[in-house]
């Protein structure tokens, strides 16, 4: 486990210097995504094109105003999208694909914390307790924008996708071949397990199909963010208090996540990282059959079949 001082030194050393990176951060308007945006902007010293995707323009504007002034030709922008709808994700992906030449870093961290039960979206998948936001939107962004990452890679530049969720959980028990949409056996816990497992599987499936790109599932640790905003009064206060005692800041989380994004040792393939940038070693692997099942199910949902 690298010490935090080593993370800072590595990030400084490994930051892209000869290029102007393009970074798209879905969930970049708060929390872990915000931390990554700020740290990327710091190391690129204003020489980056950073796109924040989320619902809150106000939050995005506040973050953008705090970043180092963009140098000539660089820019920071907000793109509005409620990612609980795959139609919305498709509209934004097509917009980005039509006007960006490449993507170097695609960071996926949209999230909610909710105790509510299953609430199907227009795509027939669970919205309220995680899965659409924590998984399907991320899969669709990663798959639909992969050609732009391939372009970056073909030019000899970094090309990395980082999904920030719970890379320590997940495993074969999260794949239910007869209930992939989790319609029969729904619980908040099962929804969390499924979202995490599908992120794991998607990282493996995408790495196989886009072999020149690096796909990473990272755990952020306990981070002091706005994730408990939708919890009922009382529980929100309690989790906020407990979290403040043990959590790291969004900046620390940003540095740790950027450590994986910049790590020269993982230019391609599927990677599972702890909150401190180590490889996850303690969880069961998904079989090839599980990975392919997740790929097939995800493409069906994301393509509206
Ligand atoms: N914080 C932790 O300790 C912790 C620990 C383990 C895992 N995680 C995971 O890390 C991820 C990021 O969490 P966080 O702590 O950074 O939370 P956060 O501060 O609440 O940020 C969540 C982000 O998701 C976006 N978002 C939520 N619903 C959305 C929607 N329907 N459409 C578009 N964007 C949406 C929000 O943007 P808008 O408000 O602009 O829509 C915001 O940018 C989550 O998946 C969470 O489960 C967090």
Helix/strand class: alpha/beta
Strand content: 5-15%
Categorize the overall geometry. globular
**Order of strands in the sheet with the most strands?**
3-2-1-4-5-6-7
**Helix-strand pattern, N to C?**
HEHEHEHEHEHEHHEH
Helical stretch tally: 9
- Major sheet: 7 strands, parallel
The CATH H-level homologous superfamily: NAD(P)-binding Rossmann-like Domain
Gist of the model:
By secondary structure, this protein is of the alpha/beta class.
What descriptive keywords fit this protein?
oxidoreductase, Sec_Metab_Biosynth_Oxidored, seven-stranded parallel β-sheet, 12% strand, oxidoreductase activity, alpha/beta, 305 residues, SDR_fam, NAD(P)-binding protein, Rossmann fold
Write the layout of secondary structure elements.
Layout: H1 4-14, E1 22-26, H2 31-44, E2 49-54, H3 57-66, E3 75-80, H4 86-99, E4 105-108, H5 131-154, E5 160-164, H6 188-209, E6 214-218, H7 235-246, H8 250-262, E7 269-273, H9 288-302
Parallel strand pairs: 1-2, 1-4, 2-3, 4-5, 5-6, 6-7
Bound molecules: NADP nicotinamide-adenine-dinucleotide phosphate.
The site of NADP nicotinamide-adenine-dinucleotide phosphate has 29 residues, from α2 and α5.
């Amino acid at each position: 486990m690298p010490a935090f001082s080593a993370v800072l030194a590595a990030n400084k050393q490994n930051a892209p210097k000869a290029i102007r990176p393009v970074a798209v951060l879905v969930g970049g308007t708060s929390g872990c995504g915000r931390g990554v945006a700020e740290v990327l902007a710091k190391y690129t010293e204003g020489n980056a094109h950073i796109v924040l995707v989320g619902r809150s323009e106000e939050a995005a504007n506040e973050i953008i105003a705090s970043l180092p002034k963009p140098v000539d030709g660089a820019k920071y922008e907000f793109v509005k999208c409620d990612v609980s709808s795959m139609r919305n994700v498709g509209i934004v992906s097509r917009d980005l694909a039509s006007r960006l030449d490449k993507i170097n870093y695609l960071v996926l961290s949209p999230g909610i914390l909710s105790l509510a039960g299953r609430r199907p979206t227009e795509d027939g998948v669970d919205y309220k307790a995680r899965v659409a936001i924590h998984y399907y939107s991320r899969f669709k962004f990663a798959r639909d924008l992969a050609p732009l990452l391939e372009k970056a890679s073909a030019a000899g530049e970094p090309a990395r996708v980082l999904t920030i969720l719970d890379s320590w959980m997940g495993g074969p028990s999260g794949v239910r071949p007869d209930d992939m949409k989790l319609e029969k056996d729904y619980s908040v816990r099962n929804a969390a397990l499924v979202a995490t497992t599908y992120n794991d599987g998607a990282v493996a499936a995408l790495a196989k199909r886009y072999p020149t790109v690096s796909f990473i599932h990272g755990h952020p640790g306990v981070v002091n963010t706005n994730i408990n905003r939708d919890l009922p009064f009382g529980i929100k206060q309690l989790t906020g208090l407990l979290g403040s005692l043990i959590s790291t800041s969004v900046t620390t989380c940003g540095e740790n996540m950027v450590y994986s994004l910049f790590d020269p040792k993982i230019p391609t393939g599927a990677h599972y990282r702890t909150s401190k940038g180590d490889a996850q070693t303690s969880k069961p692997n998904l079989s090839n059959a599980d990975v392919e099942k997740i790929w097939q199910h995800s493409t069906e949902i994301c393509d509206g079949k």
